[in-house]
């Protein structure tokens, strides 16, 4: 065994599966391990503006040059001309994110984009480029260089301006080899869509809040992607041409399209038309739409293939609808909705025993009675959830339950039956939002202690900040250290604060800067992961598109 752990190829295999904290621990074992594991610390690197007064400032240029060959993911916060040589040495780079917001004094837009173009010109492994809300309009040179990137298959742009001529160039680049394209709040200045342009290789297309391009033209774009698997469409302005959308879905333009993420204004009848037109649906996201009784009728033909469904913030979605989906869809892996009542939950067993994500607010009420539900009702809910042994994400409180509405959500306590969830051995994320706020501090602390002890894979726990003041109970009934957040930290579990009143957050409007963000990492190409974050009304919010691992999307 000792000899095996001295082999570089064995250590390389181990290092590829460790996080930075574990890598640093391994480097402290011996000198040979330091040599083998240190390169893994450079897999992902963020280049920030040099600050000589900062104790842990940016590495010196010689150290950057020495380790440039190990970098796979590079985030550029500052396009420093002094480190251009470093950029050119990142020959193994697979992903680059350009997120620079300021220029050096005397620098200009042309020079900045010129350096970026030179940087990506001859990188034979570069597969993903992200242009993230830079304040400078992209140049033709950058797009022309992208076109020459032989391995480029993912392009994401945000808040980028394209004039008419540049839009033509951009579309041409996208039509070459790209498999995923994400355009977020980009401005196209009323473009003309080339008549003969086809996006033959495109598998995933995300058009989100694009301006200057009509929604009708965006549907034309969709119709030119014959091999598309997933379409994500977001816009709160403009009227959806529902007939054209249905024609694209039913007319054979995108015969492989099985994932629809539509965050646009649609009525119940319009959603039903879309579901009727789609030949096959595996992943469906319709948050904030009018999904209702008509939509459910149309959805039933897809029950046998449905794997992921998101019906968050849909006011017409009822508890019986959610229960029908759980009871009928045997292949379901992910569900997000607002409410599921205990009275509906107990009616029938769930068919989806392979569920990996459950994000539904659970109510425990007695029909026609204002009295508190007995603990046996809560235990029945936990016993049902305990059957979902494949879960890695569990949230049992919705946004509406977290607000002061007339609801009776499930209790989170040992007395209520939480211990039944000991079966969830794969759980990595648990959210109860505000449900512990009204609990006795000692009882809430006991919940945290139990989670830490039983859910050994737990990585993130979400609740309100009140949990930080909950501690163990002393002999005289007073709280003593350690506190709940200390236990979480000591066990490597991230505490994420749920903020129920968004108006009380920081001035810049980044409501979840240090909290849970929805990274979609389940769609990959040859093992290469893609991720991005959802936004709405200026803040990151809860919107899920399914489990994190989905090999069928390759």
Describe the structure.
The protein is α/β, with parallel strands linked by helices. The protein is 27% helix and 18% strand. The protein contains 18 helices and 23 strands. Helix 7 packs parallel to helix 8 (164-174). The longest helix has 14 residues, at 441-454. The two termini are 36 Å apart. Mean pLDDT is 82; it is low at 502-554.
Q: Considering DSSP H and I runs of 4 or more, what fraction of the residues is helical?
A: 25-40%
Number of helices: 18
Total DSSP E strands: 23
Alpha carbon gyration radius:
25 Å
Mean pLDDT: 82
Q: Give the terminus-to-terminus CA distance.
A: 36 Å
Overall outline: globular
How large is the share of residues in beta strands? Answer: 15-25%
Would you identify the regions where 5 or more consecutive residues have pLDDT less than 50? 502-554
What kind of sheet is the major sheet?
A: 17 strands, parallel
Task: Look at the helices and sheets and give the structural class.
Answer: alpha/beta
Pfam families: F-box-like
InterPro entries: F-box-like_dom_sf, F-box_dom, LRR_dom_sf
Organism: Linnemannia exigua
Protein name: F-box domain-containing protein
């Amino acid at each position: 065994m000792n000899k095996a752990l001295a082999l570089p190829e064995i250590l390389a295999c181990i290092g590829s599966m460790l996080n930075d904290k574990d890598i640093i621990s391994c480097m402290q074992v011996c000198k040979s391990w330091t040599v083998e594991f240190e390169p893994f610390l450079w897999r992902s690197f963020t280049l920030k503006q040099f600050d000589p007064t900062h104790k842990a400032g940016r590495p010196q240029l010689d150290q950057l040059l020495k380790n440039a060959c190990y970098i796979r993911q590079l985030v550029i916060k500052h396009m420093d001309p002094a480190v251009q040589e470093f950029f050119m040495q990142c020959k193994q780079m697979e992903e680059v994110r350009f997120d620079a917001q300021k220029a050096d004094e005397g620098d200009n837009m042309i020079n900045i984009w010129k350096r970026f173009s030179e940087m990506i010109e001859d990188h034979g492994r570069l597969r993903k480029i992200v242009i993230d809300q830079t304040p400078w309009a992209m140049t033709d040179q950058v797009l022309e260089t992208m076109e020459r990137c032989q391995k480029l298959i993912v392009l994401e742009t945000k808040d980028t301006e394209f004039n008419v001529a540049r839009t033509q160039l951009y579309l041409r680049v996208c039509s070459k080899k790209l498999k995923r394209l994400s355009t977020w709040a980009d401005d196209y200045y009323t473009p003309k869509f080339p008549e003969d342009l086809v996006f033959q290789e495109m598998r995933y297309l995300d058009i989100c809040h694009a301006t200057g391009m009509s929604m009708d033209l965006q549907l034309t774009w969709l119709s030119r992607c014959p091999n598309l698997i997933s379409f994500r469409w977001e816009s709160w302005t403009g009227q959806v041409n529902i007939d054209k959308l249905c024609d694209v879905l039913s007319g054979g333009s995108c015969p492989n399209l099985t994932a629809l993420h539509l965050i646009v204004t649609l009525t119940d009848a319009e959603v039903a038309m879309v579901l009727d037109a789609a030949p096959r649906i595996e992943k469906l996201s319709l948050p904030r739409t009018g999904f209702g009784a008509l939509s459910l009728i149309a959805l039933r033909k897809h029950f046998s293939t449905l794997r992921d469904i998101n019906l968050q913030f849909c006011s017409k979605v009822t508890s019986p609808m959610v229960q029908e989906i759980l009871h009928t869809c045997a292949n379901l892996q992910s569900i997000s909705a607002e409410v599921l009542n205990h009275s509906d939950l107990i009616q029938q067993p769930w068919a989806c025993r392979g569920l990996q994500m459950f994000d539904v607010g659970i109510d425990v009420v007695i029909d026609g009675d204002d009295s508190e539900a007995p603990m046996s009702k809560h235990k029945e809910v936990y016993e049902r959830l305990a059957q979902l042994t494949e879960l890695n994400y569990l949230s049992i409180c919705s946004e509406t339950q977290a607000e002061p509405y007339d609801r009776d959500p499930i209790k989170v306590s040992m007395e209520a039956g939480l211990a039944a969830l000991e079966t969830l051995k794969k759980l990595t994320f648990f959210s109860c939002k505000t449900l512990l706020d009204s609990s006795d501090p000692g009882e809430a602390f006991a919940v945290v202690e139990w989670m830490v002890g039983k859910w050994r894979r737990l990585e993130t726990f979400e609740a309100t900040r009140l949990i930080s003041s909950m501690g163990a109970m002393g002999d005289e009934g007073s709280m003593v250290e350690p506190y709940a957040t200390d236990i979480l930290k000591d066990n490597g579990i991230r505490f994420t604060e749920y903020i129920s009143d968004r108006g009380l957050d920081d001035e810049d409007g980044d409501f979840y800067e240090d909290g849970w963000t929805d990274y979609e990492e389940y769609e990959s190409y040859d093992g290469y992961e893609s991720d991005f974050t959802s936004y709405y009304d200026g803040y990151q919010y809860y919107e899920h598109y399914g489990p994190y691992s989905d090999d069928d999307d390759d």
